[in-house]
Specification:
The complex is a heterodimer of chains A (366) and B (510).
Chain A lengths: L2 H10 L5 H10 L5 H6 L3 H4 L5 H10 L2 H13 L2 E5 L7 H4 L7 E6 L8 E5 L6 H16 L3 E4 L5 H11 L4 E4 L13 H9 L3 E4 L11 H12 L2 E4 L8 H10 L3 E4 L10 H8 L4 E2 L3 H5 L13 H5 L5 H10 L4 E2 H8 L3 H13 L3 E4 L3 E4 L2
Parallel strand pairs in A: 3-4, 3-7, 4-5, 5-6, 7-8, 8-9
Antiparallel strand pairs in A: 1-2, 2-6, 10-12, 11-12
Chain B lengths: L1 E10 L2 E12 L4 E5 L4 H4 L1 H11 L8 E7 L11 H10 L12 E3 L2 E2 L5 E2 L4 H10 L4 E5 L3 H4 L6 E5 L2 H9 L12 H4 L16 H13 L3 E4 L6 H7 L9 H13 L15 E2 L7 H5 E2 L4 E2 L1 H4 L4 E4 L7 H5 L2 H6 L1 E5 L4 E5 L3 E6 L18 H9 L3 H4 L4 E4 L5 H5 L7 H18 L13 H7 L4 H14 L5 H16 L6 H8 L11
Parallel strand pairs in B: 3-4, 5-8, 8-9, 10-17, 10-18, 11-14, 14-17
Antiparallel strand pairs in B: 1-2, 2-4, 6-7, 12-13, 15-16
Helix pairs in contact in B: 2-3, 8-18, 8-21, 18-21, 20-22, 21-22
Classes of the chains: A alpha/beta (366), B alpha/beta (510).
Amino acid sequence: MEAISKFIVFLSQFDISNSKYNKVIEYVDIKNPFKSFIDCPGIVTDKVLTGKQYTAMKEYASEENVDKYIEEMAERGIKVVTIYDEEYPSKLLNLPDAPNILYCKGNYDLMEKPALAVVGTREPSRYGILSTEMVVKDVAACGIVIVSGLAYGIDGVAHRKCLSVGGFTIAVLAGGFDNIFPSQHKGLADEIVEKGGLLVSEYRPKAVAQKYTFPIRNRIIAGLGDGVLISEAGMKSGTIYTKNYALEYGKNVYALPGQIDSKKSYLPNTIIKDGQASLVMSGCDILADYHININNQNNNLAKNSGYQLSVEEEKVCACLENGMKNIDDVAKITNLNINILNTCLTTLEINEIIRRLPGGMIALCK
Amino acid sequence: MYSKVKSFGLVGIEGYPLDVEVDVSNGLPGFEIVGLADTAIKEAKERVKNAIRNSALPYPIKKISINLAPADIKKVGALYDLAIAIAILSCDKEISLNNIEDYVFVGELSFDGNVKRVKGILPLLISARQMGFKNFIIPADNEKEASFIENINVYCVSNLIQTVNFLKGEEKINPLETRKYEESKNAVAQGLDFCYVKGQKMAKRALEIAAAGGHNVIMIGPPGSGKSMLAKCFPSILPDMTFEEALEVTKIHSIAGELDQNEGIVSKRPFRSPHHTASTISLTGGGSNSKPGEISLADNGVLFLDEFPEYTRHTIETLRQPLEDGVITVARSNSTITYPANFTLIASMNPCPCGYYGSSDRECKCSASQIAKYISKLSGPIMDRIDIHIEVENVTYDQLNSDTKEELSQEIKKRVDRAREIQNKRFENSKTFCNSKMNVAQTKKFCKLDKQGEELLRNAFEKLKLSARAHDRILKVARTIADLDGCENIQAKHIAEAISYRTLDRKYFQ
């Protein structure tokens, strides 16, 4: 690793913003950064760093310390890559505000693969969950990497669905690996790494996610995806940042249309209307841009899973064909006894033909 | 002059014999009670004095000392008035009272000499009978309650004069005739009837299973979806109480002073629904008098906790022991009392703070972390004790107005009774009496799965990501479903149905 790389790793330990990295580097000698940093009071007089910060940093500034730190990271399975390294992901290299450093945990090579970023609200509706899953399932199954932000809602849905079909997924964090946010998704983060996925963050493991780091990390999500799918998102959603970055970087933007009166579909509907995004009705619409063709007419459920439906189960499936229904309605339409119906629902669910949703709703898996 | 009269006291639901000793001597007129008496007993002085005077009986203008023995147990309540009055009167040679030592006296006096109703007559008589006491003089107001105890002579009196005349042999009182429990049983169905609940098939079925196997239930649904209504209907499908059960329930209600005096016995399964602001003590029992709490009053019946997460965490956690053991032990500095608390818990809650998460009618305004926080108020240990989780959705207008005939509670109850019979046979020689209370060994023995069922359960765990604690719960519920079906072995379909009642184990609440 080159000296300047090490210097960036050194800087990353002090939680300074990405733009400040560049400013500090202007003051140091690329060949001999540590030494020149120590003898550079100009950094403080020009107000790039505060006196306090500078003193604290000076004390620690040595190559040996950084080597030790990198070794420590490596022991924990964390790979540290800076923008001066050859391994730095090519997709991010040309971004105007490319992150100077990336902490990575997991399958590093994923960042070079074709990928789709999936973003949306933290509080999706049932429709949002279902349609996102439907698209992610098809896309991930074709080997496209799913990139998202490990947040509640659509992010979690996208990661989980991707893992469940055996796909690979990248989670870009707004904080360090030691402070996964939200903490309820720690298990999910571990699962992603375990199943060949990747966690990425531009912050050191001990860093804690701040309010402002969330919109900033969205640029990495947009950057890593070759396309960006906007699922449900409201008027004030952070997803807007991701969309803007994606447009700025010239990525394909896709949007899942929603009901025109649904607040949660405000953003996707608006950008479709404005012509900023292309409307997505299934995974095929996206896959075409990745030059992958799959057969769209693959809706025969029984064929999919190889499971033989019983007479009652067929009745249940038939009644759900036109959209999800409440369990009481299903009981009424199919005229099945509730105990038989419950039995059917569980077996159908285990065979992944139907799924249950909050509020006692049942929907076909598509 | 010295005289001694028998009375009875209560600690919890157990009675103990008590001597009321009176000494009337010359000296400055006065009235002193010793023997760890509480304020109500200390005040007996005025009641006894005025009752005797107003009954035109001679009250000695002398120094009166009274001892309640044993002296080391704290005595509570006004039930010793009658005994004290009789003891004082028996010191007077001119009123010759016969055989007062043969009787146990219990009753409160009013100023006009009337004998008033006291709390806890039933547990008191039951304990006294066990200890070999035969004859009792009790307030006439307690007549109904006392009439269920056989093999003792109970004389009901309505005032002091009548008591004195009876003891003098001048007036005859017939011993109370015992009543049979069956006569008092209310023929009218208990609670609301399920036929008034439209739709909600899933919830009804779940409650039927809960009634059949004694399973605890939690209902999750938006406001106005009928959770409380369903809970109120629940007692109507529970099996009738046996006499022993009814006696146990009556004892507790008697002590708490909640007994309906026209009935005399609690023949309906109790349905208690304390508000979520209820204090922990009011739920578990305790306080300075160690009174039974709501959970004991719900013994052999239903404890309905509406808006479950709104109860304080502490209150919810105190339910752990009673849910496991069926008793609650209340320890206070002066006594440790164990009350029965064998109830079926029916809890209801909204899926999120605003109440509409997952609802089709309205949009939920809660953030994901708010929902997670709300759900997390139910701790693992408590959820471990709740077998059935169901979602209750709003009923549509069409369903409300539809003419479809809903099943009567009576019909459901028949199926429940049948399932209970099977269980009674199964647990004949053990302490367990229903499927939900099976211990690990019993679960292993009675919940054997065939190959198909085993495979289904394994698949379900993998695919549906059920939590580990669900395993035994599912087996127990499946056992009850099989019982309702009249099947000896649990089949795959029973397992499949049982799995569908584990909503909260699904990850979609996270």
